[in-house]
Amino acid sequence: MRHPRSLALLFLPLVVLGCDAGPDDEPVPIDRAAAESAAEAIEAEELMTHVARLSSDAFGGRAPATPGEDSTVAYLTEQFRARGLQPGNPDGSWTQPLTLVGIRSEAEGSIQVDGRDIGLSYPDEFVAVSYRDGASVSVDGSEVVFVGYGVDAPEYEWDDYAGQDMSGKTLIMLVNDPPVRVEGDTAALDPHMFNGEAMTYYGRWTYKYDIGAEKGADAVIIVHETGPAGYPWGVVSGSWGGENFDIVSEGGGEPLKVEGWITREKAEELFAAAGHDFEELKAAARHRGFEPVPLGATADFAIDMTRRTVESRNVAAKVEGDTHPDEYIVYTAHWDHLGTDPSLTEDSIYNGAMDNATGTGGLLEVAEAFKALPEPPARSILFLAVTAEEQGLLGARYYAENPLYPLDRTLANINLDGLNIWGPTEDVVVVGYGSSSLEEVLRTYAGQQGRTLTPDPESEKGYYYRSDHFEFAKKGVPALYVDAGTRYRDRPEGWGEARMAQWTEEDYHQPSDEITDEWDLAGAVEDLRLLFLVGYDVAESETWPTWNEGNEFRATRQEMLGTR
Fold first, then answer.
1. How many whole angstroms separate alpha carbon 278 and alpha carbon 201?
2. For residues 144 and 181, what is the distance between their CA atoms, to the nearest angstrom?
3. In whole angstroms, what is the distance from residue 113 CA to residue 98 CA?
4. Which of 49, 116, 357, 559 matches a 20 to 30 Å C-alpha distance to 333?
């Protein structure tokens, strides 16, 4: 029997969508002392032990379908079992299997304009893959058209295609979505267009390839720019130059023949050869009414593919609730990284210590905190370590499309990806700030830590669409994703942003993402304890989290819960 909760924390008035409170849904105040005591089970030393193990050379960079996956799955299963959790799959197992197709692409490309052959050096200037069936694919003499940001958004009355036929063409697109300026002000962004400073899904490369395929193009080539992309060219060439994965699925439209990137420098060369100024066309693309610009060029691409079908696994463990065991809060973290590159001579292993051995280790620590409670939470907690995030959120997408537990019984997703490794902060960065009522729960417990919430300072880079919570959000499940704060205690102003920028430039998706003497996991522990309290509050609350008014996922959630 559940004992009465005492010393109640603030009980937040969240709104229920499509779900009436029943006789058993009376508020149960949280036992603050018990919650805070359980949170202390999350410790820096133990977290470091997990990170060191998962990011060790013995795990080989944790790529899917490698011995590193076997080691990772075995370690996580062992750790969840040792903490007294139950297998997360209803069939009694600790994993959710999924089939992936691994594709290695050898790509060549060139563009002909005004009698000149502009070669595309792979992978220094150009990378490309193809997800078409077969051993090879080619594009010959395809007309090259600049389509601005490649966006077709009726709700903004924006159509970069202007109704023109794009069949068989090669489309050159800018990265991110249109930074539309306030009329009469060349500096300020219009907050009513594409979320102002924050990137929308129209800015994600996945959208750009999907819309290009929908328009009938043969190839979509995105112009890489470090600022709006959020990462240097080395990340693109490193990630796209190796083996890429996709989920084996049936149905759906035909993918593009060619999905690729070119450097900004190569784009400038191409545009100049075609008699255009890259910056001028880029500026024109920021305005409604932009129309596609044929470059008077043709493109040739040839891609040879080596395919293999592989099996991978999401790892799932749960703490069963004792009042509403059929309702869930899901914590996610991706266990995978980029594996090993034998062509690298000095250090060939992408250890992925921060990204994302920290989040995976954090998942184990939060699980330990839930098991440290004197009584189980009212609702069940699912801990989901997903595969193939680095390949396009594939493990999370597979779960969202094939959930172990119904999404209309899933209250929230809380995602752990790249924890704070540089010490305590005075704030908590919310990626996708203003999205859901989960932030009000977060604000309450952050305040009790003496901390405040801060919007993502780099919202224009679209981090909200680049981690596993996004697959839950697309299906309508309210999702929370926080990042390290920016105001580090006992550090000068701006130190956090500068340190993160340096890490992104030097270590993101590089073999150098390893534990160093600089690491201080006190901030990660503070964040994990905070997210544990948020999940526990949601598990105990009589009401369900909701998307805020105007959020793009609100209607999906309303439709989902309206069927119950």
1. 24
2. 28
3. 45
4. 559
Q: Are strands 410-415 and 479-483 parallel, antiparallel or unpaired?
A: parallel
Kindly report the number of other CB atoms within 10 A of residue 70's CB atom.
13
Structure tokens at 115: 């009698």
DSSP classification of residue 436: B
List the one residue out of 116, 215, 238 whose CA is nearest residue 163: 215
Q: Give me the helix-helix angle, 32-39 and 359-371, nearest 10°.
A: 140
For 186-234, how does the pLDDT look when each residue is reduced to its tens digit (9 = 90+)? 678 888 788 888 888 889 898 999 999 999 999 999 999 998 888 899 8
**Alpha-carbon separation of residue 146 from 149, 331, 367 (angstroms):** 9, 41, 49
One-letter identity of residue 86: Q
Q: How far apart are CA 286 and CA 194, in angstroms?
A: 11
Better pLDDT: 391 or 144: 144
Phi, psi of 14 (to 5 degrees): -80, 160
What is the C-alpha separation between 396 and 399, in angstroms, rounded?
Answer: 5
What does pTM read for this prediction?
Answer: 0.82
Whether the CB-CB separation of 173 and 295 falls below 8 Å is answered with: no
Closest Cα to residue 338, out of 402, 257, 243? 243
Closest CA to 457 of 499, 423, 427, 429: 429
Cβ atoms within 10 Å, residue 344: 13
Q: Which of 179, 276, 160 lies closest to 227 in space, CA to CA? A: 179
Angle, CA 399 vertex, CA 534 and CA 352 arms, to 5°: 75
Q: In this structure, what are the phi and psi dihedrals at residue 333, rounded to the nearest 5 degrees? A: -155, 140
Give the separation between CA 430 and CA 498, rounded to whole angstroms. Answer: 18
First-to-last alpha carbon distance for the chain, in angstroms, is 29
Enter the tokens of residue 210: 């999907």
Return the sign of the alpha-carbon dihedral for residues 338, 339, 343, 347.
positive
Could you tell me the two tokens for 460?
A: 């224009």
Q: Which residues, 6+ apart, have CB-to-CB distance to 474 below 8 Å?
A: 400, 553, 556
